[in-house]
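Q: Give me a backbone?
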Amino acid sequence: MDLFEHEARDLFEKHGVPVPRGRVAADPGGARAAAAAWGGPVVVKAQVKTGGRGKAGGVRVVPTADDAEQAADDILGMDIKGHTVHRVLVTEAGEIAEEYYVSFLLDRAARTFLAMASVEGGTDIEEVAASRPDALVRVPVNPLDGVDAASVAAAFPAGVRAEAAEVVEKLWAVFVAEDCTLVEVNPLASTPAGIVALDGKITLDDNAAFRRSASFDEASGSEALEREARAKGLNYVKLDGDIGVIGNGAGLVMSTLDVVAAAAAEAGARGPANFLDIGVVRLDGNNVTEGRRILAEAAHPLVTVVATMDDAAREAAKLAIAEG
């Protein structure tokens, strides 16, 4: 389960990770009150579980409380990649000397945990990894031994390494104590007050949901469809595209998403709109002929039967473009 930025910030603060003062607001007046309480410039940020907020106009740095109120009024209700903004996070803005990147994640390929760090924070880290892989330090983490914070902090300038190592230790504590599969800070900023986590992303392990309060899950589950699917025992995640995907088994659904995304990119369409694993459905097997006959006789105008997954992905991309 992905958390909102303000929820990640609260967990960071709980474990001693330095963060700027912040307050969540559901209306422009709340944003104004937060900015007025602190004085000085603030950052008003849309709270949605997707990237690209800044490019969409969902992040504003403003100098006064009046400006914070106006920024919140502009941002609330905004649609960012299919996600409606219902709340904003207002945080103090400060002087930034340098921006870094640090994260902990579950490395499924290596079947272990991985720490990553870079001096190129504040940017798209996937682009950094693809174009300048040497700029990203990767440190495997043995869960029994814990993180070698000094090795992770070695990615940063010498003058901040000791302080950064302390922050790395605290982020690892967040990762372990809160049952996370991802803890990411981008940027981790060097400021006159020291190292500060300016923006964070956290994904919680759904397998550990029994250890969390139901109210926490409900608060973070912003999408009504996600809550409804969870209540019915289905695994649904809203994505940013236009092509719905229903699959059988998480592995098959992930593979289907990849095929659909590739076909959509080739056709100039947006990719998958969701991840939905509904359990056991077989369209190919011992009774494939009978299954295809039933589908053909149903003659449903919204159902198209094709022979292969590649054909299905291409057809879905065409339909998505046609529906515009």
